[in-house]
Amino acid sequence: MAELLKFKMCPPGIVLDLLGDYLDDFQPELCVMLLNGCGRYLLYTPETRVRTSNQVERMMKLKNNRSLPLRTEISIEDCYYQLIPPEKKETKKAKSKLETLVRFIVYNYIYNEPDMDKVVDLVLLLPWDGKVNHDNFEAPDGVDENGNLIEDANDPESGAEGKTDPAASAASGSGAEGTASGTASGTAPTGGALAEKKKKEKEDLSKPVESKVGMLIKRGILDLQLHVDYEHLYCIASLLSGLMSFRSDFVYECVDTLLERIQVRRGCKLCN
Fold first, then answer.
1. CA dist., res. 19 & res. 79, Å (int)
2. Can you tell me the distance from the alpha carbon of 110 to that of 236, in angstroms, rounded to the nearest whole number?
3. What is the pLDDT of residues 61-82, one digit of tens each?
4. How far is 43 from 26, CA to CA, in rounded Å?
5. Could you tell me which of 61, 110, 94, 82 has the C-alpha nearest to residue 221?
6. Cα-to-chain-centroid distance, residue 55
7. Whole-prediction pTM value?
8. Which of 79, 125, 140, 271 lies deepest, with the highest CB count within 10 Å?
9. Which fold has domain 92-145+209-272?
Protein backbone atom coordinates (compact mmCIF):
# COMPACT_ATOMS: atom_id res chain seq x y z
CA MET A 1 0.00 0.00 0.00
CA ALA A 2 2.78 2.45 0.89
CA GLU A 3 4.66 1.81 -2.36
CA LEU A 4 1.48 2.18 -4.40
CA LEU A 5 0.88 5.54 -2.73
CA LYS A 6 4.39 6.83 -3.50
CA PHE A 7 3.99 5.86 -7.16
CA LYS A 8 0.60 7.64 -7.19
CA MET A 9 -1.28 4.46 -7.89
CA CYS A 10 -3.33 4.75 -4.70
CA PRO A 11 -5.13 7.84 -3.35
CA PRO A 12 -3.62 9.22 -0.12
CA GLY A 13 -7.07 9.34 1.51
CA ILE A 14 -7.29 5.54 1.51
CA VAL A 15 -3.94 5.22 3.31
CA LEU A 16 -4.88 7.86 5.87
CA ASP A 17 -8.22 6.16 6.51
CA LEU A 18 -6.39 2.88 6.98
CA LEU A 19 -3.99 4.54 9.43
CA GLY A 20 -6.97 5.98 11.31
CA ASP A 21 -8.52 2.50 11.60
CA TYR A 22 -5.26 1.16 12.99
CA LEU A 23 -5.22 3.95 15.57
CA ASP A 24 -8.85 3.31 16.54
CA ASP A 25 -8.02 -0.31 17.32
CA PHE A 26 -4.50 0.82 18.33
CA GLN A 27 -2.38 -1.67 16.50
CA PRO A 28 1.04 -0.06 16.97
CA GLU A 29 3.00 -2.53 14.85
CA LEU A 30 0.83 -1.87 11.80
CA CYS A 31 0.91 1.90 12.39
CA VAL A 32 4.71 1.90 12.58
CA MET A 33 5.01 -0.30 9.48
CA LEU A 34 2.72 1.96 7.45
CA LEU A 35 4.40 5.20 8.60
CA ASN A 36 7.87 3.82 7.94
CA GLY A 37 6.80 3.05 4.38
CA CYS A 38 5.10 6.32 3.40
CA GLY A 39 4.97 8.56 6.49
CA ARG A 40 7.47 11.15 5.22
CA TYR A 41 5.73 11.27 1.86
CA LEU A 42 2.40 12.02 3.53
CA LEU A 43 3.89 14.43 6.05
CA TYR A 44 5.74 16.55 3.48
CA THR A 45 3.00 16.61 0.88
CA PRO A 46 1.02 19.88 1.28
CA GLU A 47 -2.38 18.24 0.74
CA THR A 48 -1.93 15.60 3.46
CA ARG A 49 0.47 17.37 5.86
CA VAL A 50 -2.07 18.53 8.46
CA ARG A 51 -4.02 15.28 8.64
CA THR A 52 -0.87 13.14 8.82
CA SER A 53 0.61 15.34 11.55
CA ASN A 54 -2.55 15.03 13.62
CA GLN A 55 -2.56 11.25 13.33
CA VAL A 56 1.11 11.02 14.27
CA GLU A 57 0.49 13.13 17.37
CA ARG A 58 -2.50 10.96 18.21
CA MET A 59 -0.29 7.86 17.98
CA MET A 60 2.18 9.40 20.45
CA LYS A 61 -0.61 10.30 22.88
CA LEU A 62 -1.95 6.74 22.77
CA LYS A 63 1.54 5.42 23.39
CA ASN A 64 1.96 7.64 26.45
CA ASN A 65 -1.46 6.76 27.89
CA ARG A 66 -1.11 3.01 27.58
CA SER A 67 1.22 0.46 29.03
CA LEU A 68 3.13 -1.09 26.15
CA PRO A 69 6.13 -3.41 25.92
CA LEU A 70 9.48 -1.68 25.81
CA ARG A 71 10.20 -2.91 22.30
CA THR A 72 6.95 -1.43 21.01
CA GLU A 73 7.60 1.93 22.68
CA ILE A 74 11.07 2.10 21.15
CA SER A 75 9.73 1.31 17.66
CA ILE A 76 7.04 4.01 17.96
CA GLU A 77 9.53 6.63 19.15
CA ASP A 78 11.99 5.69 16.42
CA CYS A 79 9.26 6.06 13.81
CA TYR A 80 8.19 9.43 15.25
CA TYR A 81 11.69 10.90 15.28
CA GLN A 82 12.33 9.70 11.74
CA LEU A 83 9.26 11.59 10.61
CA ILE A 84 9.85 14.68 12.77
CA PRO A 85 13.55 14.86 13.69
CA PRO A 86 14.44 17.03 16.69
CA GLU A 87 15.95 20.43 16.01
CA LYS A 88 19.70 20.61 16.47
CA LYS A 89 21.09 23.70 18.13
CA GLU A 90 24.44 24.43 16.52
CA THR A 91 26.70 26.76 18.44
CA LYS A 92 29.41 28.13 16.21
CA LYS A 93 32.51 29.33 17.96
CA ALA A 94 33.74 32.67 16.69
CA LYS A 95 37.17 32.43 15.08
CA SER A 96 39.89 34.85 16.03
CA LYS A 97 41.55 37.18 13.52
CA LEU A 98 44.69 35.07 13.60
CA GLU A 99 42.83 31.84 12.81
CA THR A 100 40.85 33.54 10.05
CA LEU A 101 44.02 34.85 8.45
CA VAL A 102 45.76 31.46 8.64
CA ARG A 103 42.76 29.72 7.06
CA PHE A 104 42.71 32.31 4.26
CA ILE A 105 46.41 31.78 3.54
CA VAL A 106 46.28 27.97 3.57
CA TYR A 107 42.92 27.52 1.83
CA ASN A 108 42.93 30.33 -0.75
CA TYR A 109 45.95 32.60 -0.99
CA ILE A 110 48.50 29.82 -1.52
CA TYR A 111 46.72 28.67 -4.72
CA ASN A 112 45.86 32.10 -6.16
CA GLU A 113 49.19 33.86 -5.65
CA PRO A 114 51.66 33.02 -8.47
CA ASP A 115 54.66 34.31 -6.52
CA MET A 116 55.28 31.76 -3.76
CA ASP A 117 57.89 34.04 -2.14
CA LYS A 118 55.12 36.45 -1.17
CA VAL A 119 53.20 33.63 0.48
CA VAL A 120 56.29 32.54 2.42
CA ASP A 121 56.97 36.13 3.52
CA LEU A 122 53.38 36.51 4.73
CA VAL A 123 53.55 33.25 6.68
CA LEU A 124 56.83 34.31 8.30
CA LEU A 125 55.22 37.59 9.41
CA LEU A 126 52.74 35.69 11.57
CA PRO A 127 53.39 35.75 15.36
CA TRP A 128 55.17 32.39 15.57
CA ASP A 129 56.83 33.16 18.92
CA GLY A 130 53.91 35.05 20.42
CA LYS A 131 55.29 38.43 19.31
CA VAL A 132 53.73 40.54 16.60
CA ASN A 133 55.66 42.62 14.07
CA HIS A 134 53.73 45.90 14.00
CA ASP A 135 55.41 47.03 10.81
CA ASN A 136 53.79 44.30 8.74
CA PHE A 137 51.16 42.58 10.87
CA GLU A 138 48.15 43.79 12.83
CA ALA A 139 47.75 42.26 16.26
CA PRO A 140 44.40 40.59 17.07
CA ASP A 141 41.99 42.26 19.48
CA GLY A 142 42.83 41.81 23.13
CA VAL A 143 46.54 41.17 22.55
CA ASP A 144 49.38 43.55 23.39
CA GLU A 145 52.66 44.00 21.49
CA ASN A 146 54.17 40.96 23.21
CA GLY A 147 51.28 38.65 22.37
CA ASN A 148 49.83 38.68 25.91
CA LEU A 149 46.12 38.98 26.65
CA ILE A 150 44.96 42.43 27.75
CA GLU A 151 42.71 42.46 30.81
CA ASP A 152 39.50 44.42 30.43
CA ALA A 153 39.68 47.65 32.38
CA ASN A 154 35.88 47.74 32.74
CA ASP A 155 35.81 44.34 34.43
CA PRO A 156 34.63 44.87 38.05
CA GLU A 157 36.70 41.96 39.32
CA SER A 158 39.89 43.24 37.73
CA GLY A 159 39.11 46.73 39.04
CA ALA A 160 38.59 45.38 42.53
CA GLU A 161 41.87 43.58 42.37
CA GLY A 162 43.68 46.70 41.18
CA LYS A 163 42.47 48.86 44.09
CA THR A 164 44.53 48.77 47.28
CA ASP A 165 43.93 50.10 50.73
CA PRO A 166 46.56 52.67 51.89
CA ALA A 167 46.63 51.22 55.39
CA ALA A 168 46.99 47.68 54.07
CA SER A 169 49.77 48.74 51.71
CA ALA A 170 51.64 50.44 54.56
CA ALA A 171 51.29 47.34 56.74
CA SER A 172 52.42 45.08 53.93
CA GLY A 173 55.36 47.40 53.26
CA SER A 174 56.53 47.20 56.87
CA GLY A 175 56.05 43.43 56.85
CA ALA A 176 58.06 43.13 53.64
CA GLU A 177 60.89 45.19 55.16
CA GLY A 178 60.93 42.93 58.21
CA THR A 179 60.97 39.84 56.06
CA ALA A 180 63.78 41.19 53.88
CA SER A 181 65.89 42.10 56.93
CA GLY A 182 65.27 38.68 58.45
CA THR A 183 66.28 36.96 55.22
CA ALA A 184 69.40 39.08 54.83
CA SER A 185 70.44 38.56 58.42
CA GLY A 186 69.93 34.84 58.82
CA THR A 187 68.02 32.40 56.62
CA ALA A 188 69.06 31.89 53.01
CA PRO A 189 68.16 29.25 50.42
CA THR A 190 70.32 26.16 50.65
CA GLY A 191 72.55 24.98 47.82
CA GLY A 192 70.45 21.86 47.26
CA ALA A 193 67.26 23.91 46.82
CA LEU A 194 68.95 26.23 44.30
CA ALA A 195 70.32 23.30 42.32
CA GLU A 196 66.91 21.63 42.22
CA LYS A 197 65.26 24.87 41.11
CA LYS A 198 67.77 25.38 38.28
CA LYS A 199 67.36 21.77 37.17
CA LYS A 200 63.57 22.19 37.00
CA GLU A 201 63.87 25.40 34.99
CA LYS A 202 66.27 23.69 32.57
CA GLU A 203 63.84 20.81 32.07
CA ASP A 204 60.98 23.23 31.38
CA LEU A 205 63.06 25.07 28.77
CA SER A 206 64.07 21.84 27.06
CA LYS A 207 60.45 20.76 26.47
CA PRO A 208 59.29 21.49 22.90
CA VAL A 209 56.38 23.93 22.79
CA GLU A 210 54.31 24.16 19.61
CA SER A 211 53.18 27.68 18.80
CA LYS A 212 49.57 28.46 17.98
CA VAL A 213 50.48 29.63 14.48
CA GLY A 214 52.35 26.41 13.74
CA MET A 215 49.45 24.32 15.02
CA LEU A 216 46.93 26.19 12.82
CA ILE A 217 49.07 26.00 9.68
CA LYS A 218 49.87 22.33 10.20
CA ARG A 219 46.20 21.51 10.70
CA GLY A 220 45.28 23.34 7.49
CA ILE A 221 48.06 21.76 5.45
CA LEU A 222 47.24 18.21 6.57
CA ASP A 223 43.50 18.62 5.86
CA LEU A 224 44.20 18.13 2.16
CA GLN A 225 40.77 16.78 1.27
CA LEU A 226 39.14 20.08 2.22
CA HIS A 227 40.87 22.47 -0.17
CA VAL A 228 43.36 20.85 -2.55
CA ASP A 229 43.48 18.35 -5.41
CA TYR A 230 46.34 16.37 -6.87
CA GLU A 231 47.23 19.05 -9.43
CA HIS A 232 47.88 21.69 -6.75
CA LEU A 233 49.94 19.66 -4.30
CA TYR A 234 53.05 21.43 -5.57
CA CYS A 235 51.80 24.65 -3.92
CA ILE A 236 51.98 23.08 -0.47
CA ALA A 237 55.36 21.55 -1.31
CA SER A 238 56.65 24.96 -2.42
CA LEU A 239 55.42 26.57 0.80
CA LEU A 240 57.14 23.98 2.98
CA SER A 241 60.29 24.29 0.88
CA GLY A 242 60.32 28.04 1.39
CA LEU A 243 59.79 27.68 5.14
CA MET A 244 62.59 25.12 5.45
CA SER A 245 65.30 27.77 5.77
CA PHE A 246 63.47 29.61 8.56
CA ARG A 247 61.21 27.06 10.33
CA SER A 248 62.87 23.70 9.77
CA ASP A 249 61.37 22.14 12.91
CA PHE A 250 57.87 22.98 11.71
CA VAL A 251 58.52 21.46 8.26
CA TYR A 252 59.95 18.27 9.78
CA GLU A 253 56.93 17.97 12.05
CA CYS A 254 54.48 18.36 9.16
CA VAL A 255 56.24 15.69 7.09
CA ASP A 256 56.50 13.30 10.06
CA THR A 257 52.82 13.72 10.89
CA LEU A 258 51.82 13.12 7.27
CA LEU A 259 53.94 9.95 7.03
CA GLU A 260 52.53 8.73 10.33
CA ARG A 261 48.96 9.17 9.10
CA ILE A 262 49.77 7.33 5.87
CA GLN A 263 51.24 4.41 7.80
CA VAL A 264 48.26 4.27 10.16
CA ARG A 265 45.73 4.26 7.31
CA ARG A 266 47.72 1.67 5.38
CA GLY A 267 47.89 -0.52 8.46
CA CYS A 268 44.13 -0.22 8.98
CA LYS A 269 43.48 -1.24 5.37
CA LEU A 270 45.78 -4.24 5.68
CA CYS A 271 44.02 -5.33 8.88
CA ASN A 272 40.63 -5.09 7.19
1. 14
2. 8
3. 999 999 999 999 999 999 999 9
4. 20
5. 110
6. 40
7. 0.42
8. 79
9. 1.25.40
